[in-house]
Design brief:
Number of strands: 0
Number of helices: 2
Distance between the termini: 26 Å
Strand content: under 5%
Order of helices and strands: HH
Radius of gyration: 15 Å
Helix content: over 70%
Structural class: mainly alpha
Number of domains: 1
């Protein structure tokens, strides 16, 4: 299970990176444009997916000696 938890941590990190890219796209355009709205919606979906993956990591590690997932972001 630890191997799977580590792979999921990598997925969570990738989702976070993708969310940041979407946020950058949203911030670089016209605030009222459709593209900005789409980028913000994508960022929200990606962060929601990241949280779900992080919960999966925690569930896999539940009861083990491994530390819970913590990327330092608060």
């Amino acid at each position: 299970m630890e191997d799977l938890a580590e792979r999921l941590e990598a997925v969570a990190e990738e989702l976070g990176d993708m969310a940041m890219d979407a946020l950058r796209r949203a911030g670089s355009g016209d605030p009222d444009s459709a593209e900005t709205g789409e980028a913000l919606a994508a960022e929200r979906r990606l962060l929601k997916a990241r949280r779900a993956v992080e919960k999966s990591v925690a569930a896999l590690r539940e009861g083990s000696n491994a530390a819970a997932f913590d990327d330092g972001a608060a």
